[in-house]
Amino acid sequence: MRVLLVDDEAELVEALAERLSLRGIDADWAVTCKDALGKLDTKKYDVAVLDVKMPKLSGIVLKKEMEKKAPGMGFIFLTGHGSEADFRAGTAEAGADYYLVKPVGIDELLKKMKEVVGE
Amino acid sequence: MGDAFETLSEEGFQFFGRVTASVTHEIKNALAVIRENAGLMEDLIALGERKGDLDPARILALAGKIGTQAMKADGIVRNMNRFAHSMDEPLADLDLGETVELLATLSGRIAAMHGVAFETRVPDAPVWVKTNPVFLETLLWACLECAMNAAGPQKRLGIVLEETGSGARVRITGIQGENEPEFPSERHRDLYLAIGAEVRFGPGRDEIILELPKRASL
Fold this sequence. Notes:
The structure holds two protein chains of two kinds. In chain A, 43% of the residues lie in helices and 21% in strands. Chain A is of the alpha/beta class. Chain B is α+β, with helices and mostly antiparallel strands. Chain B is 56% helix and 18% strand. Chain B is built from six helices and seven strands, in the order H-H-E-H-H-E-E-H-E-E-H-E-E. Chain B has helices at residues 2-51, 56-85, 96-106, 108-113, 133-149, 186-194, and strands at 92-95, 117-121, 128-131, 156-164, 167-173, 198-201, 207-213. In chain B, the strands form two sheets. A five-stranded mixed beta sheet of chain B has the order 2-4-5-7-6. The radius of gyration of chain B is 21 Å and the shape is elongated. At the A-B interface, helix 1 of A face helix 1 and helix 2 of B.
């Protein structure tokens, strides 16, 4: 499974990507929307894990841009929002497969990613 | 004051809510970094035990990252605590430099979401005013929010504090005021009049000017 993690907190995505790699996942990361879109030019990903709130461009807008470049990719949103229900209501329009509240457990994230790609 | 309190009950709570939401997001981000790096440390230790190959320098580096994030979270909480305590007294002696720095820090993440950065410039010596901290902070926030929405192409907003003969002046520079024609509104007027202040655009509408008296007559 190939995963792209996007969050403006470099120390978060870097650690998360390494933890996923240790579990056999091919994980890359980006800290800006521009970097994330650039990575889609050189590699095909099965799922993207996006922070909802990033400077300049939200994860919701980024998802729409990524879908244009990589149709069929699955999406999981991460948020620092306190309530998953409020967050889900606010981002329903974006239509991601899953919504997870930070900090998220690695096993839970892994499980959701596998569900997204149908493993 | 009646109108001012009515305005404050809406603007002030909105401001408090936005700052609290933003600050708690920042704390959750710091906690998420701590959790992932602690998890990675556990993974590497477990792997090292299995393979008999543990890199102490790597573990130390991760511990350092965790410590840095804990300090970051502590700084955020300390600022939020200072902000919360500004509600303690209806009239207080304030070092405006500290207030300006605090507001700029607390709204830094909101600014980043607008793609905007603040640069504060305060005098070395404290600039004291006696005023209502909540009214002042709500008013300063209203000015910053307007400035963020009207930021010029450079996306860098200056927050400049100056002592004046009658009190102090805060200038928020780097804006294109024609983008915010409704500012300051009647509601903002209620607030600034309540503490004897004045809010206006500078000539050319490229800066917002907040004039404060040395002592608010509440």
